[in-house]
């Protein structure tokens, strides 16, 4: 299974948990997510951040909430480093990188 397929599978399971109001097993899925190498492209294509944030909002288990928050923070940091890297390349090369509007859309994905 490709990383993208793994993320889509996990996202579907998390979304199903939220819709059924049963977050049993969410901790295992979040731990699995923690072990996967995340890229900005995977975050955008799979929208996994939306599923993790949703489970965070609907869960009452403090451990699940903490791990979900940690994942989201890590992914936002990843987004920040990618944007900062593009900004420094833009300054040195004079080329356009991400517009503020695009940056806002990327942050929304998380």
UniProtKB/TrEMBL annotation:
InterPro entries: TFIIS/CRSP70_N_sub (IPR003617), TFIIS/LEDGF_dom_sf (IPR035441), TFIIS_N (IPR017923). The keyword Nucleus applies. GO terms for biological process: DNA-templated transcription. Coiled coil: none annotated. Residues 5-82 form the TFIIS N-terminal domain. Keywords: Nucleus. Transmembrane segments: none annotated. Residues 85-104 are annotated as: Disordered. The keyword Nucleus applies. GO terms for cellular component: nucleus. It is found in: Nucleus. PROSITE patterns: TFIIS_N (PS51319). SMART domains: TFS2N. This is TFIIS N-terminal domain-containing protein. It comes from Oryzias sinensis.
């Amino acid at each position: 299974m490709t990383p993208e397929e793994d993320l889509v599978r996990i996202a579907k399971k998390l979304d199903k948990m939220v819709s059924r109001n049963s977050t049993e097993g969410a901790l295992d899925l979040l731990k699995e997510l923690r072990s996967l190498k995340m890229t900005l492209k995977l975050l955008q294509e799979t929208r996994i951040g939306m599923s993790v944030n949703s489970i965070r909002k609907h869960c009452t288990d403090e451990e699940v909430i903490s791990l979900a928050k940690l994942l989201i923070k890590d992914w936002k940091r990843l987004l920040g480093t990618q944007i900062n890297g593009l900004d420094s390349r833009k300054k040195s090369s004079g080329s356009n990188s991400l517009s503020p509007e695009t940056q806002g859309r990327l942050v929304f994905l998380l």
